[in-house]
Design goal:
about 120 residues, 4 helices, about 20% strand
């Protein structure tokens, strides 16, 4: 399995928001100093194996290396920062988030299923 790509810059987050208009995107906030973060990452990897090609795009933010970006994300989406934390983006907004033990393969699958098929509003004109 390929490693989870790293998110390092605000411009990359803006590209992920654009991608979320077409489908769900998962943003995982990880601390290299936290044992719970490593357990959460194992759950994410198990989810990816289970979902296979159906898994949405996933990126990882190292909150120690990119502390300022982690703060910007919390402010941008109005979701209090935790780590580990998983954000599900859809239509350029957070539609689900979980932290600590909530970052679990079953919860991730349920969140993606609930929000993965959402489509932007279509004009009826």
């Amino acid at each position: 399995m390929d490693p989870i790509p790293e998110l390092c810059e605000l411009s990359e987050l803006e590209r992920l928001e654009a991608e979320s208009l077409a489908g769900p995107v998962l943003l995982y906030k990880h601390s290299s100093r936290c044992g719970t973060s490593f357990m959460a990452q194992r759950e994410l990897e198990a989810y990816r194996r289970q979902a296979g090609d159906r898994a949405p795009r996933l990126v990882r933010l190292d909150v120690i290396e990119h502390r300022a970006l982690a703060r910007q994300i919390a402010e941008r989406y109005g979701v209090r920062h935790h780590s580990p934390q998983l954000l599900l983006l859809r239509n350029a907004r957070v539609v689900w988030h979980g932290s600590h033990s909530e970052v679990e393969r079953g919860a991730i699958a349920a969140a993606v299923a609930a929000h993965g098929r959402e489509q932007p509003a279509k004009s009826t004109v």
